[in-house]
Amino acid sequence: MRVEVTDSRSGERPPGPMDVRAPSPLAESGRGLLVVDAVADRWEVLDREPPGKTVRAEVDVPGWRSLGVPVVLGLG
Questions:
Q1: The pTM is what?
Q2: Confidence band, pLDDT 50/70/90 cuts, at residue 65
Q3: If both were cysteines, with which of 27, 38, 52, 67 could 23 make a disulfide (CB 3.0 to 4.6 Å apart)?
Q4: DSSP 11-42
Q5: CA 34 distance to own-chain centroid
Q6: How far is CA 19 from CA 22, 43, 44, 45, 70, in A?
């Protein structure tokens, strides 16, 4: 499964995989990428034009079939 979140704000580019640090306990932000890093099998930060960025994360789902292959459910 792939999830993409786009942010149109300019500013500092967020850290990539393996560079995410836990925020201080009283910080009001900074936990989203911590969750992504813990749950996703793969993820990356992509620059976006105009200013902004997109975080793309993928989670492997066991037994999941491609959307291009029909899934037939048993009816009996």
A1: 0.69
A2: low
A3: 27
A4: SSPPP-TT---PPPTT-SS--HHHHHHHH-SE
A5: 10
A6: 10, 12, 11, 12, 39
Structure tokens of 72? Answer: 């037939």
From residue 2, how far is each of 28, 69, 74 by CA, in Å?
27, 17, 27
User: 48 near 10, Cβ under 8 Å?
Assistant: no
Q: Report the mean per-residue pLDDT for the chain.
A: 82
Which tokens hold the place of 60? 């492997």
- Could you check whether the bond before residue 50 is cis, i.e. omega within 30 degrees of 0? yes
